[in-house]
Amino acid sequence: xxxxxxxxxxxxxxxxxxxxxxxxxxxxxxxxxxxxxxxxxxxxxxxxxxxxxxxxxxxxxxxxxxxxxxxxxxxxxxxxxxxxxxxxxxxxxxxxxxxxxxxxxxxxxxxxxxxxxxxxxxxxxxxxxxxxxxxxxxxxxxxxxxxxxxxxxxxxxxxxxxxxxxxxxxxxxxxxxxxxxxxxxxxxxxxx
Length: 192
Known about the structure:
- By secondary structure, the protein is mostly beta strands.
- It has helices at about 1-15, 40-50; strands at about 55-60, 70-75, 80-85, 90-95, 110-115, 120, 125-135, 140-150, 155-160, 170-180.
- Strand 3 and strand 4 form a beta hairpin.
């Protein structure tokens, strides 16, 4: 089940990641039709994250004892997306069209019921902190989102899946973004 879930997640990432380097399709002028108006700032930060030409991220399981267990690493470098699960081999694929504030399958908002919480300081920088509901395909989660006060992009999320597991094979996932281009280096990919 873990491999199947991971491959579904990778497919979702590839289908919904940005197509090329810097992309300015994010609309700062108005909310998209059908978007939850309370999530305007969250949606623009979400688009800005995926429109970054080069970035890396980790997804970890938040275990019951509070420790993080690294599950996945990803690197987006211009038109290619690289990923590996549980320190396995690196795989690559083309980056496909941008994620938007609406789910490509249902046309419904990805984020709803956004609430601004107290501003906070992450490990790296000052951030705006939001709580929201996240929906994609059949999955749903309560999500905490930290958005950089400097860049306006997502820097951290904590997703608590409704059914105990969602797009990840565990109930609570922590994603940490890194926009330092020097950290998003091309990994060695084995021939497929």
